[in-house]
Amino acid sequence: MSLHLTDVTLTYPDGESRLTALDRVTLDVPKGSLTAVVGPSGSGKSSLLAVAATLITPDHGTVTIDGTTTTGMTRGELTDLRRHKIGIVFQQPNLLPSLTAAEQLQVMARIDGRSPAKARTRALELLDAVGLADQAGRRPHQLSGGQRQRVNIARALMNDPTVLLVDEPTSALDHERGAAVIDLITRLTHRQAAATVLVTHDRTHLTAVDRIAVVRDGRLRLPTPAG
Amino acid sequence: MFVAWRDLKFAKGRFALMGTVIVLITLLVGLLSGLTAGLGRQNVSAITGLPADRIAFDAPGGGQDLSYADSTVTAGQWLQWARTPGVTSAEPLGITTTRATAGDRSTGVSVFGVRPGSPLAPGSGEIDDGSVVLSTPAADDLGLKPGATFALAGQRLTVAAVRGDASFSHTPVIWTSLTTWRKTAPPAAADGPTATVVALSTDSATDTRAADEAAGTRTVSREDSLSAIGSYTSENGSLQLMRGFLFAISALVIGAFFTVWTIQRSADVAVLKALGASTAGLLKDALGQALVLLAGGTLVGTGIAAALGALVAGSAVPFLLTPATVLFPAAVMVLLGALGAALSIRRITSVDPLTALGSAR
Ligand SMILES: Nc1ncnc2c1ncn2[C@@H]1O[C@H](COP(=O)(O)OP(=O)(O)OP(=O)(O)O)[C@@H](O)[C@H]1O
Ligand SMILES: [Mg+2]
């Protein structure tokens, strides 16, 4: 198991009282499998992702990434953990305007202090995997929305993460491109043996994922295993 | 610096604009520094060049400040100092500002009267009651060569030599004997003034306070005596004030620029943090970027200032080009600019990586 959420409860301040965004959520994601999380707006999907990404500390419960429990870690330790173990595919591509597609990926190796030459090779390899081999030298404003989203995905894989977190990857894309992106993430999950959580409110593309979990009012419901 | 370098190139226009502002401010600071030093030298070089460490003035009454213009010391005061233990040399020095005329040329000069053979004047062996030593700017202004004659406050004098470039209160110095000087000075009290001040060479054993009391003088170090030159304090003070303001303005402008720049890229910073970039690394990169801009701008500005300074050196413009007048302000610019940038870049610390998630940007 590569990502464990155990009994996670998260509340936000809401006037006098507190609003429960996640209510005793337990989720295990094994390596090389993709769990889609669906649910209506406001159900807690983004909150779940933020907790798994170590960007929010839950009120209660534990998050375990590749065997490391994050409880009690300092902010610096969490940053290191994110850098080495977690890949995030943002809802908006969030590319840096001054960097070319290849450099968007190379920056990941830079912040990890790794060899620039190897990073370049790896970046081009990943861009090739997402079908952008010939766009490596382009800046974000020279790429289409779908191409940007694919760079965003390739970047998340640059440091070979154990856990891949994907936030509404299709919200800015049309139907066809959306399907292609989900398909790409599914393939890469298997290829990289990542434990992937994909959050979306749109079930239409989820034909090839390993399982679909549903959140409603902060409660997570997993499908009863077939058999 | 991976992203920082690319941002510099990508946002060329913005950084070029800021760089130009830094160049212009540095240029202004450089020119002002050279001018301050140049003007200062014209004002005080005759005093700072004296082979003496202390200057004794006639003690002014009524809480007045020391002044080269108002002081007159008598022979008694001078001899009192000459007898004081620890004083290796006590030389009377007379100072007046008057006009010198040679043919149809005329210029304001400072007359420095010394005893014949006194170490205070360059080439004092050639000074007597009829011949004087001119500083180079005095000789140039009057168009005089050794052997020529000219008129000084109604006296006909011969140029014995042209030596040094001493200047006092923005006028070139003419070294004369005390007798010649006395004829240019305003008429004075009963036993007649010997000089304006006494230039002293002392050692640590000298009890200045006791000697001052005995002689009725007030003694200050040579450097402190500069404020007794009428215009020096106010002139130097206002130029230094201007320079100080320019330093403050540059720090503020640079701070404002990097504040806006940091706010503009806070979304990028949030993304980098979410991806695992450390805050320390991001701060280092941003500061490095600011330093590149600052160093580049300061280098160009200082270069132009030095080039302009070299161009006007030797002309009538009192511009002093030395490492101290050029490199010191450049270093201060970089330091203060970095401080301003650091204060604005600090807000990187408070950017929350959580904002990179979701669609709200
Ligand atoms: N920072 C916050 N402060 C207070 N309440 C919050 C905050 N973020 C989210 N919430 C609340 O927590 C609940 C869950 O929000 P969350 O963003 O996780 O929902 P979501 O499932 O991602 O919705 P959507 O599909 O619209 O993105 C919502 O009721 C929301 O209003
Ligand atoms: Mg959401």
From TrEMBL, chain A:
Domain ABC transporter: residue ranges: 3-226
Residue ranges that the Swiss-Prot or TrEMBL entry lists as coiled coil: none
UniProt keyword annotation of Disulfide bond present: no
Pfam families reported in the protein's UniProt record: ABC_tran
CC per GO annotation: plasma membrane
Keyword Coiled coil: no
GO terms assigned for molecular function: ATP binding; ATP hydrolysis activity; transmembrane transporter activity
Record's keyword terms, sorted: ATP-binding, Nucleotide-binding, Transport
Signal peptide range: none
CDD domains for this protein: ABC_MJ0796_LolCDE_FtsE (cd03255)
PANTHER family for this protein: ABC TRANSPORTER RELATED (PTHR24220:SF685), IMPORT ATP-BINDING PROTEIN (PTHR24220)
Name of this protein: ABC transporter ATP-binding protein
Species the sequence originates in: Streptomyces roseolilacinus
TrEMBL record, chain B:
Keyword Transmembrane: yes
Record-annotated ABC3 transporter permease C-terminal domain positions: 245-353
Topology with respect to the bilayer: Multi-pass membrane protein
Subcellular location, principal: membrane
Top-rank lineage group of the source organism: Bacteria
Keyword terms of this UniProt record: Cell membrane, Membrane, Transmembrane, Transmembrane helix, Transport
Annotated TM spans: 15-35, 241-263, 291-314, 326-345
MacB-like periplasmic core domain segment(s): 22-214
InterPro entries, alphabetized: ABC-4/HrtB_transporter, ABC3_permease_C, MacB_PCD
Pfam families: FtsX, MacB_PCD
Subcellular location: Cell membrane
An annotated GO cellular component: plasma membrane
Family: Belongs to the ABC-4 integral membrane protein family.
Record protein name field: ABC transporter substrate-binding protein
